[in-house]
Structure formats: structure tokens, C-alpha cells
Amino acid sequence: MAKVTVIIPVYNTQDYLQQCLDSVINQSLTDIEIICINDGSTDNSLSILKEYVVQDNRLRIIDIERGGQGTARNLAIKEATGEYVGFVDSDDWIENDMFEELYNSASTFATDVTVCELTHFNQADNKLEQPNWTKLSAHINFDNRGFPWDELGRDCFRIGSGPCTKIYRRDFIIKNNIIFAKGVLSGCFVCLPQLCKINCHKLCKKPLYVYRMDREGSTTSDLGRNNLIFLKY
């Protein structure tokens, strides 16, 4: 059993996929399983994935017809064997210690969900910036403990139900039958009542996930990312 299963849905991201995969396979936590779901890509994404499978035996590909992120993620969760499950979008990337930081924290505090902050990468002007609404450390005294959901109060909305920036205990997902909505716009888990029963969160103040903003061709940018960002985070 791997410590963390990293799930990467892939759809037509050939220009960004290598950066994403490099950031995952070069994690300081090496005991990971990487499941890439090729969600009916029509560009060169599948060929890129096949090149990486040859380089790294921790990575495997599930090739499906186009079904959307929700369908892809649900399938990968069923195939996952890791103690924890994390999600990375194929046009984003992560810091090289993200999963080590989250796993060590989750193990120490026995949390169902462990969360880090994120950084936005503005595609238009090639700049990194941390959005104010994600700065958990400014609002919550997170030091050396986990949190029952109801203790977070209004700050729970700074965490959201989106899958990236987090690792989830796989047994918790399976036991509560927590799934993603099917379709393209499916960034949030279904079964929010079960998510609200999470035994505890642990908040990591480091911005370890890099979210690519306003990428041409992305689902959320095509439909108005400012109005739909809550669907992904």
C-alpha cells in the first residue's frame, strides 16, 4: 500500500501536462501511487502519459471515453490503493514537498482531511500570487492540532469541498460513499453532509498547490472562471 495515491484526470492538456507530471513524480515523498485518467483526450496527452509510464513504474494510465472530471476521479478512487488520496489537475502543478507535508501532518494528527494553501498562476501575465481568501493561517489558529468541522465556523468556506490542495483518508471516502458528480463541471464532492462529519482537519499554512488561472480551453475559463471557481475549490 502506498502512502498516497495521486489522481490526475487528463483532458487535452498537452502544453501543461509535462510540468504537472514532473512535479508529481519528483515529490520528496516517494512512496506514492500515481493514477492518470486519460479522459478522451484528442491531443497528444495520451502519448505524453505513455512516455512517463516507461520512466516511472509508480504511474499507470486508465484510458476512457470522455466522461468529465467527476467520472474520471470516481473511477480512479476505486482503483486507488493508497492510505490517503490526493488530486492534481493536469494543467496545474505542485511544490515538491506537498504530499510529504500533508502526509506527515495527517499521520501525526490522524485526520480524515489535511489541507494546504494554494498559489494562483496568472497565465496572462506569467505571475504567481496568493489569493487572500485562501490564507487560512491569517484566520485560524491551526498550530499543533486538528479541527472538528463545526469548530471552523465561517472559515470552513475558505477550505471548500474541492479536491485539490488536500489529501483524504481513503477509508473515509469509501466508508461514507463520497463521490464526485458526473460531468465536466464536477470539482466538488457529492454527499456534503458526510463531508461535514469529518472527524478533523489539519491546516497547513504553506501554499503548496499552484492553480493555473485563465488557461485558454479550460472548462472554467470557457464558462466564466470568476463565477465558477467554487466548483473547483
Q: What can be said about this structure in brief?
A:
30% of the residues lie in helices and 24% in strands. It is of the alpha/beta class and 233 residues long.
Structure, explained:
With 233 residues, this protein is an alpha/beta fold. Helix content is 30%, strand content 24%. It has 9 helices and 9 strands. The chain has helices spanning 17-25, 45-55, 69-79, 98-109, 149-152, 170-175, 192-195, 219-223, 225-232, and strands spanning 4-10, 32-39, 59-64, 84-87, 93-94, 113-122, 127-129, 166-169, 201-213. Strands 1, 2, 3, 4, 5, 6, 7, 8 and 9 form a 9-stranded mixed β-sheet that branches. The protein is globular and about 45 Å long. The relative contact order is 0.18. Mean pLDDT is 82; it is low at 219-233.
